[in-house]
Write a structure and sequence with these properties.
It is a single chain. This protein is mainly β and 202 residues long. Helices cover 0% and strands 46% of the residues. It contains no helices and 19 strands. A hairpin with a 2-residue loop joins strand 1 and strand 2. The radius of gyration is 20 Å and the shape is elongated. The mean pLDDT is 78.
Length: 202
């Protein structure tokens, strides 16, 4: 995943704190490795995002840096394994289009945390995961999950939907769910097998 380069300082010595400045040329996960004789240490960075995106790089932590207003499509599609989406308290606001999710994940070992999701028919949708996969939905707020009055049967709304054999859904706040005449609403729907935990929902 990208090129590798190194900087070597021969006979380096310092009696104080040293600093290294690294400039990102691409908005993606980077790792710095520091070798001191036989010792190695690593510095990791998270990917900062400020707009809706497809998260397709495995083993990546993405942190939202601004609130998003999205009216045309599902905002975040997560399709790679071991991804964390941390909204850092920022909001994702939709326009209540039937069938759209603020966050949709179809992969294993996904964590979604600290998001404020408003005006979507489907808030967080984590589905089609393997039996051994894990999902964590933590510290999110889903407000105004709304379907239009003419929404038909099958266009159900839900704040959180998780299909996983090992799911943790913790400390989420859900408020104001309103379905159309032919649709059903669900604050929390967890399915897919044993091995998970559900707590902290109110």
């Amino acid at each position: 995943e990208g090129s590798e380069c190194s900087v070597f300082a021969e006979n380096y010595a310092c009696n104080d704190i040293s600093y290294v400045v690294s400039k990102e040329l691409m908005p993606r996960k980077h790792v710095l490795r520091f070798d001191f004789g036989n010792l190695s240490s690593y510095a990791y960075n998270d990917v900062s995002i400020s707009a809706c995106a497809n998260l397709t790089t495995a083993n990546q932590n993405s942190t939202l840096s601004a609130s998003i207003i999205n009216t045309t499509a599902t905002c975040f599609n997560i399709s790679a394994a071991n991804i964390t989406l941390n909204c850092a308290g920022f909001s994702i606001t939709g326009n209540a289009t039937v069938g759209l999710s603020a966050i949709y994940a179809n992969s294993s070992n996904v964590t979604i945390r600290d998001c404020i999701i408003t005006n979507w028919t489907r808030g967080i949708n984590v589905t089609n995961l393997s039996v051994s996969s894990k999902a964590a939905i933590v510290n999110n707020t889903i407000n105004n999950a709304v379907a239009p009055a003419n929404a038909s049967a099958g266009n159900d709304i839900y704040a959180i939907f998780v299909r996983s054999s090992n799911a943790t859904v913790a400390n989420n706040t859900i408020a104001n769910l309103t379905a159309g005449a032919g649709a059903n609403n669900s604050g929390l729907n967890v399915t897919g097998g044993m091995g998970g935990s559900v707590y902290g929902i109110w």
